[in-house]
Every structure is written in C-alpha cells, then in structure tokens.
Amino acid sequence: MMRVRVLLTLVLIADLVWQFEAKPTLACSFPPVCKGCERTDCVPPFYKGKICRLTCRNSHRQESGNTSRTCDGHEWSGKALECKDLRCEYPEDYDTEGTSREGCMPPYHNGETCTYTCKEGFSRADGDYSITCEEGKWSGEPLECDAAVARLMSFIMMADENKDKITALGLQEE
Asked: Is there a contact between 146 and 127 (Cβ–Cβ < 8 Å)?
C-alpha cells in the first residue's frame, strides 16, 4: 500500500513537471503602442520568440524604428516604430478676405489640392490659386484678392471697350 502511494505521488509530480515544462511562460508585456501605426500578427499571449509586425497607416510615413519586433525574453527587440503624420491641418492662413475655397474637405491627406478663387467684386492681387498638402504642410502662397484691384481692372476693361468714344472726345494718348 505504501509503495502504491509513493508511486502515485511520483506520477503526480512527474505530471506537474511535464505540464509546467510543456507550457511556455509569458515573457513580454503588450508591445509598445506607436502613433500612426497598425499591428498585425500580434495577439497575446506574447511568448518568447513571438513576432509582432507593424506598419504605418496610409496617411503616415515611417521615420525610424523597426517594422518587426520579437519578444526576446522580457522585452521587445529593436526600436519602436515612428510614423510621421502626412496629413495637413485646416488651411486657416489661406482663407483670406475676398477668397472662397473649393475641392477639399478634412481630413486633408497628402497630395490633396485645394482650389481658391476670388469672390465677385475682388481680383487677384497676389498668391496662388491652388495649394497642395505635401507631407503635412501646405505648398504655395495664400491667394490675396483685393476689391481695389478689381475696380482698377474693371476701369481698364471699360476704357478698352470704350476706346472709340475716348478717341472721339480727343482724350487719347499721343
């Protein structure tokens, strides 16, 4: 009876040892979060040797770090992935008096173009008719529209249309 107990105890101990050795222990906590990136093939538990893959989102570009991180014991190998946001902020500086904007809505993605026109009664004094979001910044100069320039342009056009009348009055340039 004693031998059976000892034998049973040894079997139980052997079973516990086997279960402990057969199950790997968690080695890493959840991988660091990075702004503007997404994880794939990266679900817990994170045993030693587990690989997590990271990519920058569509509106971001990789600046530094690794796109693959491996649990190598108690921490993740490599450097954290850093992704730069390529979207542009609202183009406040470009909404000037006398202008109206067309062709773009937030969020403003890399490569998106906004078109500006002068409102009725205003004419272009300076700047660009369109701007493009380029890696997080707007290209081009703000369109400036001026009512005085519009009046001057209108006067010149009227004078050109009325050349014959001006000539008849003897007011032409010599």
From this structure: no
